[in-house]
Amino acid sequence: MAIATMTTALPISFFPFLLLVPAIFFTICHANSNLLCVPSEREALLKFKNHLIDPSNRLSSWVEGGDCCKWIGVVCHNLTGHVHQLHLAAPLSPYEQSALGGKINPSLLELNHLSTLDLSNNNFSSIHIPKLFGLLESLTYLNLSRAQFQGAIPHNLGNLSKLQYLDLRGNDLISESLQWVSGLSSLQYLDLSYANLSKATDWLQVTFKHPSLLELHLSTCILEDDPHLISVNSSKSLAVLDLSWNSLSSVPKSIFSLHGLVSIDLRFSSLDGPIPDYFGNISFLEVLDLHQNSINSSIPNSVFCLNHLRFLHLSSNKIQQDISEILQSLSRCCLGSLESLNMADNQLSGHLTCQLGQFKNLSYLSLAQNNISGPIPSSIGELSSLKYFDVSENQLNGTFPLCFGQLESLETLDFGYNLLEGVVIETHFSELTRLTTLKASHNRLRFEPNSSWIPPFQCQIIELGHWHLGSKFPLWLKFQKELSSLDISHVGISYVMPTWFVNLPTQLEYLNLFYNQLTGGISYLNVTNSIDLSSNRFTCPVPRVLSTLRYLFLSNNSFSGSLSELICNPSLKEMVALYIDINLLIGEIPYCWNHWENLAYLNLGNNNLTGKIPPTLGYTNPCMLNLRNNSMFGELPSTLRNS
Ligand SMILES: *[C@@H]1O[C@H](CO)[C@@H](O)[C@H](O)[C@H]1NC(C)=O
Ligand SMILES: *[C@@H]1O[C@H](CO)[C@@H](O)[C@H](O)[C@H]1NC(C)=O
Ligand SMILES: *[C@@H]1O[C@H](CO)[C@@H](O)[C@H](O)[C@H]1NC(C)=O
Ligand SMILES: *[C@@H]1O[C@H](CO)[C@@H](O)[C@H](O)[C@H]1NC(C)=O
Ligand SMILES: *[C@@H]1O[C@H](CO)[C@@H](O)[C@H](O)[C@H]1NC(C)=O
Ligand SMILES: *[C@@H]1O[C@H](CO)[C@@H](O)[C@H](O)[C@H]1NC(C)=O
Ligand SMILES: *[C@@H]1O[C@H](CO)[C@@H](O)[C@H](O)[C@H]1NC(C)=O
Ligand SMILES: *[C@@H]1O[C@H](CO)[C@@H](O)[C@H](O)[C@H]1NC(C)=O
Ligand SMILES: *[C@@H]1O[C@H](CO)[C@@H](O)[C@H](O)[C@H]1NC(C)=O
Ligand SMILES: *[C@@H]1O[C@H](CO)[C@@H](O)[C@H](O)[C@H]1NC(C)=O
Ligand SMILES: *[C@@H]1O[C@H](CO)[C@@H](O)[C@H](O)[C@H]1NC(C)=O
Ligand SMILES: *[C@@H]1O[C@H](CO)[C@@H](O)[C@H](O)[C@H]1NC(C)=O
């Protein structure tokens, strides 16, 4: 007898440290042996199928007379043959319309041993969650996430006393009370995100006091503050709490009686008061996410002194604090554990201190968009786990420390928009073999590597605007085979545009060569989204471009010839902005603007264009149109007069 063993791993949250996944091992009997399927259950499944709409024929194996234990999505008990699990989640493929729809037939109730029912990602758009689910007494796992159910959640789901996992995320549901949840006496995992719980004022009482719940997701539920301070049995075990995207205004104080919490997510929750100083009560906390609120007080020390803290995200608030104080507090408690610190977009001030080098497990650090000043400490070279480093948009000064070259895990390096100065050499990048993003524009740095230098990295994004890169086009860019975005604007190149660059076998999305002294002509640019060649000395006709291009800036050059090849190319439908002012264009403005429907900005001023303004220009309806200083005449066409 051929026996195949199937591991049914029920997917649980993205927190890898929480292994709520029950290790259920079911064995499906395959092949030659006698039919395992219980006939009455087969009939029930067929009836269930008949009321479903199955446009892609996913259930084609569900046929009269077959062994239902071998049908797709059906798992039977290996000895009794009873149907135990129905895995009918729709695969999430944008190309395949494989969602089931239609009605849920009560024949499902004949599956007395059904413990797992997964209908996630299907499309039951027109129906309520059927009450009959509340009668499937054996259920331990019910997943209806993103299945387009709507209306009130039937309270009799609370009768499912064996249910451990209930996932109703991402439907159009409403519940005016969560009292029914207290009936789910085995529940460990509850996700009601996106349900309208604005009237369910008991949400906190019910969920925080629930005796078995470990993981709770109530994101985007229109929850409001509950000022009641509830007391919770201290053996309570709620570990993961997600209340993101609600209207809470302050951290619910009752959270601090949940001593077992490991993860708190309060992103986008309208928090604006001070953060209460009770975090000492949740001493096992590993993850705290308060991103995008309006917290303006300083962060209480108890937050930084959580001994197990791995992930602290406080970005996009109004926190006014000295970064050195924060690093000091963090280093007292979670030097070894901290993996991710994001305090970007606040009002932090002060200097970075060399303590930074002591966070050995730090892999993600963002302090962007603050007012941090002073030098970048060279202890940063000791952060051997660092993958992501962003200190852009601060007031950091001094040099770019050489120790960055040691950070062999580094993938993203962003120190753009600071005041660093001095010389950068090849050694600054020596071990950066994994670097994919280098953003460093707007510093006063000089980098003129040896012409034989081959970078150790393959970057997708390189931004070195306002650096001094020497008068020749940087030859090392030749080796960047993955490049999709390049900004070397204002870097002092004064040379003919090299053909090797134009012919690079990579397709860029974004190219910025603004304000150099590049000369020569360009026949073609393989760039999909945005090109800025303004303020150079390019000559010859304007280059041909891809039909996907949206922004083309060629101002202040010596491009010559007529516009018709560019304008009358019918494939250019995406263009939003076209600037070719201050050039040497001649001839008439062509009459073929019908396909320029997305054009919002058009500047052809300061050329030598002649003739009349074409009426078809009115189709574009731009919010900016400049044709000044040309040799054109005639009236404004009526099509443009109401613009
Ligand atoms: C429910 O199904 C969705 C989509 O198939 C999955 O992402 C999610 O993890 C499942 N929920 C649980 C609790 O297993
Ligand atoms: C049936 O499955 C159980 C585990 O779920 C296993 O211990 C047992 O050996 C299996 N029996 C057969 C006949 O495969
Ligand atoms: C779900 O089905 C309805 C009715 O057939 C349809 O209008 C709707 O676009 C579908 N929704 C999705 C997300 O496929
Ligand atoms: C099931 O739930 C409903 C509504 O909550 C309740 O009225 C009913 O008594 C429950 N039935 C059983 C058998 O517990
Ligand atoms: C949520 O439900 C309440 C009724 O309970 C209703 O007044 C409100 O408009 C709903 N909000 C949304 C965003 O659907
Ligand atoms: C607290 O929980 C424990 C274990 O679950 C239980 O034995 C005890 O009765 C509970 N106490 C209260 C006051 O609910
Ligand atoms: C912190 O924990 C203590 C001891 O369990 C408890 O008495 C106190 O109420 C908790 N503080 C808050 C704000 O919940
Ligand atoms: C913080 O915000 C509150 C309310 O928005 C305001 O009353 C208070 O003055 C602010 N505090 C600081 C330090 O800006
Ligand atoms: C640092 O990270 C490693 C690997 O992720 C982990 O095993 C170790 O426990 C962490 N150290 C601390 C102090 O948490
Ligand atoms: C950095 O800026 C501070 C003022 O914020 C200044 O005192 C210091 O001299 C500057 N350091 C360097 C190396 O320019
Ligand atoms: C543009 O780049 C793509 C992707 O690298 C390449 O396949 C294509 O041949 C290039 N087109 C031209 C005309 O160079
Ligand atoms: C503009 O065009 C006219 C006629 O075509 C020509 O005489 C004149 O020299 C041109 N001016 C410039 C600046 O190119």
Automatic annotation (TrEMBL):
This protein's name: Receptor-like protein EIX2
Lineage of source species: Eukaryota, Viridiplantae, Streptophyta, Embryophyta, Tracheophyta
Family matches, as Gene3D superfamilies: Ribonuclease Inhibitor (3.80.10.10)
Pfam families with a match to the protein in the record: LRR_1, LRR_8, LRRNT_2
InterPro entries listed in its UniProt record: Leu-rich_rpt, Leu-rich_rpt_typical-subtyp, LRR_dom_sf, LRR_N_plant-typ, RLP23-like
Keywords, sorted A to Z: Cell membrane, Glycoprotein, Leucine-rich repeat, Membrane, Receptor, Repeat, Signal, Transmembrane, Transmembrane helix
SUPFAM superfamilies: L domain-like, RNI-like
Domain Leucine-rich repeat-containing N-terminal plant-type, residue spans: 39-76
Intracellular or extracellular location(s): Cell membrane
Source organism per UniProt: Gossypium hirsutum (Upland cotton)
Signal peptide limits: 1-31
Location, primary (coarse class): membrane
Family: Belongs to the RLP family.
Assigned GO CC terms: plasma membrane
Superkingdom assignment: Eukaryota
Bilayer topology: Single-pass type I membrane protein
